[in-house]
Design goal:
It is built from eleven helices and no strands. The protein starts with a helix and ends in a 12-residue tail after the last helix. It is about 75% helix and about 0% strand. It is mostly helical.
Amino acid sequence: MPTKQIKSLALIKLKGSWGNGIAITLSFFAVLMLSFLGDCMIYMLYDKESTSFLPVIPSEGLQIAISVGINVFFYLILIMIGYTFLREFIDIRHGRDYNTSRNRIMSYKKLFFKVSFVPQVAKIGIILLCSLPGFLAYDSIKTLTEQPYDKTLSVFVLMFFMMSVLVILLSVVLVINALLCLHLLPTVIMLNPLLPLSHAISMCFRKAEGNKLRIALFHLSFLKHLPACLLLYPVCVIFPYYMMSNLLLCEDILGKDLAKDTFLDVFTEKDTSPVKGI
């Protein structure tokens, strides 16, 4: 299904549900604003000259610990909120009441934490592993350029420099490849929460073969909306439009491998076990 057709179908799926999509969008940006205010509070705690009513933390080690703890907490919240919104758009796409999924999630918060947070950590871990050789090569080049010039080592230095640049380019390619492939992971998890994580990741890489350019072009097609996103009101329309279009794209790529939606079945059983393979 071409990108233009996916976008047209997204508008059809959102017809009659724009109010729900806008409400979800406003909720998402409200959480982002709370996270931003939390970071502002951290800055105020560090500012010894601040005239705020917040107590100033004198210990640098305690400052770092509090900063890391608060940011990790907000990151966890954003991950779970993001996966919740994706699930709600899946329900809107299938013409179901999205409040049902949200209520089930609130009833099984511990399970949803494992379903949402663990795959996201795995995704970030894979991307960091792909970027690690590039960072090491960049550090080597930086160290090399700071060394005094030695004519006897010029050929060796040139070869080492070229190899480091090649490693950086390969690392960039690996990161882009991982980003495009793992873009399917949240949709896979939200359609089948009990799918083993290793199987879900391998499915993403397998199904993304031959569709990476399609995923990239899809996102590039939304770049024209970025200037409008500087204003609040257009974002409330563009965000649901993007979410629904992206969902349709992922489902079209996944095809029959995840034709059945088992989310509500998983979050109904009282003795539901956590995600396998984690």
